[in-house]
Amino acid sequence: MSAAQPAPRKLDDLLARLAALHPKRIDLDLSRMHRILEALDHPERRLPPVIHVAGTNGKGSTVAFLRAICEAAGLRVHVYTSPHLVRLNERFRIAGELASDAQLEDAFARCERANGGAPITLFEIETAAAFLLFSQHIADVLLLEVGLGGRLDATNVVETPLASVITPVGLDHFEFLGDTLIKIATEKAGIIKRNVPVIVAEQQAEAQAVIEQTARKMRAPLFCATQEWHVGVEHGRLVYHDERGLLDVTAPRLFGRHQFDNAGLAIATLRAIPSLAIEPAAFEQGVVSAQWPARMQRLPAGTLATLAPQGCELWLDGGHNADGGRVAAAALADLGERVERPVVLIVGMMGNKDARAFLANFSGLTRHVLAVPILDNDNAMEPEALAAVARSLDLRADVMPGVTEALARLASLAYETPPRILITGSLYLAGHVLAENGTPPG
């Protein structure tokens, strides 16, 4: 599930062997996880208290806010997320620090021995390695992001988390989760555990109904956006309130109106867990300091930035489905209200994504799309097919061999006002961009 450059050589060899153990990259079934965890003497039972996060969009940003707030409160935090952008190490944060190559090599080698050559997907063994690492280091909380879906995701073996969190649920991964919002929401709601609080972002009505029904069945206390808690923007600040009172804090550094919602979800989660005892000052510091690469990230400098038209704005966003396109387009619209510039998209997408639903969000914002491949990825959409979709939406579309060439092409055009360029469509593409630009995530 790598998004960019390969891991260091020894670890790369390990991962290559492990990836060959199962014919499918994704095979949602918990039996293999239970088997390997038993062979490892159940590290999932020796973890710090877990906050489990599922959803279609916003999981990573919500985790980033949770981490920043908890660390501002002086808590030690483990974090498991996916996919990585440049290096595998990004997925494993141990008490605030990225796992080292040596730590990962040791954990994967132990998992390989425990697995004994039995069929297992790479993500499953990555998750087992994460549990092994986290069980060996003291922390106050573990932020555990679902990989895909929820009910049968490899992370869904923790029996009693501190809280279950569900970000906005949308249409994505049809081939694994089902072709309707109800089916997808049912899979996401599968992380809800008996008597464990569930904190829920604002949802479409069908998804909300599924989550509420599951919570009632599991007797799980429910804390829903616009019902038990509210978040909004007032005078450029984030204003949050629930039955415990009001918080008025500085706006997130992460750009876009949706990041206020993600920050609100993180605040609601931590306020639903009294045992963590987060003080108001930590919410303020955490919301403003949270960082999450490739989510409406400005690239003001770097190798690629020097190739772009002089005076332009260069942005990067890993959005890759209809809802991801919607929030990125809304962020561009907000930028346009502040300073108007022509908008250009450089887009690369995976072959299983709905390119039309994604690009339709931008039809009123841009007239020019440059379609590019995602290098070293056999499952990427052909740029010619992507360009055809853009043209069907009455967008001008050019096919380019890569992001470097696309930026050089734009630099050769005569713009009265330097453009606002958004590179988007895939986290895999975003990983390549960060690596090539020389701005890898820390």
TrEMBL record:
<dbReference type="GO" id="GO:0004326">
    <property type="term" value="F:tetrahydrofolylpolyglutamate synthase activity"/>
</dbReference>
<comment type="function">
    <text>Functions in two distinct reactions of the de novo folate biosynthetic pathway. Catalyzes the addition of a glutamate residue to dihydropteroate (7,8-dihydropteroate or H2Pte) to form dihydrofolate (7,8-dihydrofolate monoglutamate or H2Pte-Glu). Also catalyzes successive additions of L-glutamate to tetrahydrofolate or 10-formyltetrahydrofolate or 5,10-methylenetetrahydrofolate, leading to folylpolyglutamate derivatives.</text>
</comment>
<keyword id="KW-0289">Folate biosynthesis</keyword>
<dbReference type="InterPro" id="IPR004101">
    <property type="entry name" value="Mur_ligase_C"/>
</dbReference>
<keyword id="KW-0479">Metal-binding</keyword>
<dbReference type="GO" id="GO:0046656">
    <property type="term" value="P:folic acid biosynthetic process"/>
</dbReference>
<dbReference type="InterPro" id="IPR001645">
    <property type="entry name" value="Folylpolyglutamate_synth"/>
</dbReference>
<dbReference type="GO" id="GO:0046872">
    <property type="term" value="F:metal ion binding"/>
</dbReference>
<dbReference type="InterPro" id="IPR036565">
    <property type="entry name" value="Mur-like_cat_sf"/>
</dbReference>
<dbReference type="Pfam" id="PF02875">
    <property type="entry name" value="Mur_ligase_C"/>
</dbReference>
<dbReference type="GO" id="GO:0046654">
    <property type="term" value="P:tetrahydrofolate biosynthetic process"/>
</dbReference>
<comment type="similarity">
    <text>Belongs to the folylpolyglutamate synthase family.</text>
</comment>
<keyword id="KW-0067">ATP-binding</keyword>
<feature type="domain" description="Mur ligase central">
    <location>
        <begin position="53"/>
        <end position="269"/>
    </location>
</feature>
<keyword id="KW-0460">Magnesium</keyword>
<keyword id="KW-0436">Ligase</keyword>
<comment type="pathway">
    <text>Cofactor biosynthesis; tetrahydrofolate biosynthesis; 7,8-dihydrofolate from 2-amino-4-hydroxy-6-hydroxymethyl-7,8-dihydropteridine diphosphate and 4-aminobenzoate: step 2/2.</text>
</comment>
<feature type="domain" description="Mur ligase C-terminal">
    <location>
        <begin position="310"/>
        <end position="426"/>
    </location>
</feature>
<dbReference type="Pfam" id="PF08245">
    <property type="entry name" value="Mur_ligase_M"/>
</dbReference>
<protein>
    <recommendedName>
        <fullName>Dihydrofolate synthase/folylpolyglutamate synthase</fullName>
        <ecNumber>6.3.2.12</ecNumber>
        <ecNumber>6.3.2.17</ecNumber>
    </recommendedName>
</protein>
<dbReference type="GO" id="GO:0008841">
    <property type="term" value="F:dihydrofolate synthase activity"/>
</dbReference>
<dbReference type="GO" id="GO:0005737">
    <property type="term" value="C:cytoplasm"/>
</dbReference>
<dbReference type="InterPro" id="IPR013221">
    <property type="entry name" value="Mur_ligase_cen"/>
</dbReference>
<dbReference type="GO" id="GO:0005524">
    <property type="term" value="F:ATP binding"/>
</dbReference>
<keyword id="KW-0547">Nucleotide-binding</keyword>
<dbReference type="InterPro" id="IPR036615">
    <property type="entry name" value="Mur_ligase_C_dom_sf"/>
</dbReference>
<comment type="pathway">
    <text>Cofactor biosynthesis; tetrahydrofolylpolyglutamate biosynthesis.</text>
</comment>
<dbReference type="InterPro" id="IPR018109">
    <property type="entry name" value="Folylpolyglutamate_synth_CS"/>
</dbReference>
